[in-house]
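Justification of resources, computational component.

The compute hours requested in this renewal are based largely on the per-chain cost of generating structure records like the one below. Each record pairs the submitted sequence with a full structure-token output. That output is archived, and it is also reused by downstream analysis tasks.
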Amino acid sequence: MSVKRVAMWSGPRNISTAMMRSFENRSDSAVVDEPFYAAYLAETGREHPGGPEILASQSQDWREVADALCREEPASLYYQKHMTQHILPGMDLSFTEKLTNCFLIREPRRIIASYARVRGDFTLEELGFEQQAALFDRECDRLGEVPPVLDAALTLSNPRGVLGQLCQRLSLPFEEAMLQWPAGPRDSDGVWAPHWYASVWSSTGFAAPPAESSERPKTLTAAQEAMCEEAEGLYKGMRAHALRG
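The structure output for this chain reads:
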């Protein structure tokens, strides 16, 4: 079987799970949810909600995970939801050359404000901005062209147009089923889902941005403001290439 392996690289507090739902609702796909999560926790020792269950649910060896992502053939379209903060220092990224890599971005201030409501103490490294930008630059150099970039706000404003353009870039037929899905959990959800996926479990499609979306969150500490400033340049550099439908 010829398998197209689409890897979507995102930081936390984005629409990454909704995007996974969208692809899983296609007629030709299988998905995997954050396959490097256990390896990341094992390597960093960070405490996350449901940490012991996560460590028990996946391989903690990133090499073993990477091999499976490039070898397994669960469907003709294998969609892989990845978190860029799970890219560990020293990780050999040559496995990504066997994948079709795409990038999902969101305004840093919104990510940081959202993440701060879940975990009060964190570093910029835990949000994956730098890892995402480095992988993006690597792909640009390898391909000689810009890989697909999706911005969360632009996608929510025009899901049909952006997803249609993404499918075109991926040489896939667009399916209407990508725009809506059944509410509730799925077997493909990681064991961490009860801690993070409440809004996705209640969703049936891409929700339009709220009316107040143009107002930037202002409740950040001085340290978080500094993170925002550092991440903004990385975000803007990638957003210039975002699909607009």
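The chain has a mean pLDDT of 94. The two ends are 31 Å apart (CA to CA).
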